[in-house]
Amino acid sequence: MKILVAGGAGYIGSHTVKELIKEGFEVVVFDNFSTGKKELLVGGELFVGDLIDKESIKKVFRSKNIEAVLHFASLIQVGESYKDPRKYYTHNLITSLNLLDVMLETGVKNFVFSSSAAVYGVPLQIPIPESHPLNPFNPYGQTKFFTEKILQDYEKAYGLKFISLRYFNAAGADLESCLGELHDPETHLIPNILLFLLGKKNNFEIFGTDFPTEDGTAVRDYIHVKDLAKAHVLALKKLLTSSQSEFINLGTNKGYSVLEIIKKTKEITGEKVLYREGPRRKGDVPVLLASREKAEQILGWKLYHSNIKTIIETAWNWHKKTAETL
Predict the structure, then answer these.
(1) Quick one: pLDDT at residue 41?
(2) Is 140 labeled as catalytic in the residue annotation?
(3) Phi, psi of 116 (to 5 degrees)
(4) pLDDT given for residue 185 in this prediction
(5) Which one of 130, 132, 308, 314 is most buried, counting C-beta atoms within 10 A?
(6) Burial class (CB in 10 A: 0-12, 13-18, 19+), 322
(7) What DSSP line would sit under 95-108, residue for residue?
């Protein structure tokens, strides 16, 4: 079976490509390398194309006999989405519509979508269940929310089957240090700490020390990228054997504050993390924690690598390895 992985040269996409190949799927990576990296390609067949170009999508579907799609290709920076919402609505919504339309034209009905905890907005309960009201308050979160609504309408009208996976905080790196985070710019906490320790960043700043949390810094649910990738493979297998569409959280039900992550990083690396304090970023909420029960029940998903020690160790090994070469 040939699986199209849109955005397969990105951080999560590349880890998922590796898992899919290991599970015996034939993978076609579709990427325009606007944010994806050729260094993160670990196998599969590459098709260079842009989701904004519907003809490019049609070409890959017709030539490669695609049977299911995993969609990772989107812009992800919340701060940037406030500054340039047009960019986000164009690149996250129109591109998804183009991809879905070509799927319908070619009779492909299985779709795994890379969604986000941002669809929930400010949590009304912790940990957040999938039944939580959806109230995104930044343009990035809105694009994920609207795409999920489109998927529901397409299922009713056209029989499209989907699983939308709502991520919390992806972190860590491949256990063999073949893959890891290569964002430019890097906005995630753990890689920013490690890049600072390696001399790749001149300073390290934390955003907000006045949150209503135990130590005043934001609390997040960190999930190892390999566990996240495995969830996508399980979601695909579920779609291929079931007619039920689903919305599923991917998180650990456990949170760490920014200061706790800094402390853990010092313990693991042996390096003192010097930081300066800055104001909260627009759109940041105090606590984001996922309920993972549905993922366990529906997908049979298990967490093997999402303890914070493994997350930081694998990320540290990756960044040390690539500090001088990438």
Answers:
(1) 95
(2) yes
(3) -155, 155
(4) 86
(5) 314
(6) middle
(7) HHHHHHHHHHHHT-
H helix or E strand, kind and range, residue 2: strand 2-6
State the pLDDT at residue 243. Answer: 85
Angle at 214 (CA atoms; ends 212, 216), nearest 5 degrees? 55
Helices 11-22, 225-241: axis angle to 10 degrees equals: 60
Give the dihedral of Cα atoms 205, 210, 212, 216; nearest 10 deg: 50
Query: Domains in the chain, start-ordered, CATH in brackets?
Result: 2-171+223-250 (3.40.50.720), 189-220+253-322 (3.90.25.10)
Extract the tokens encoding 290. 């996922």
End-to-end CA distance of the chain, in Å? 33
What pLDDT is stored for residue 186 in this prediction?
87
In the set 11, 88, 120, 140, the catalytic residue is: 140
Quickly list DSSP for 164-204. EEEE-EEE---TTSS-----SS---HHHHHHHHHTTSSS--
User: In whole angstroms, what is the distance from residue 103 CA to residue 120 CA?
Assistant: 28
- The per-residue pLDDT for 302 is 97
pLDDT at residue 326, rounded to an integer: 59
- The answer, yes or no, to whether the previous bond of 129 is cis (omega within 30 of 0) is no
Tell me how far the alpha carbon of residue 163 is from its chain's centroid.
14
Please identify every stretch of the chain with a pLDDT value under 50, giving residue numbers as ranges. none
Whether 2 contacts 108, CB under 8 Å: no
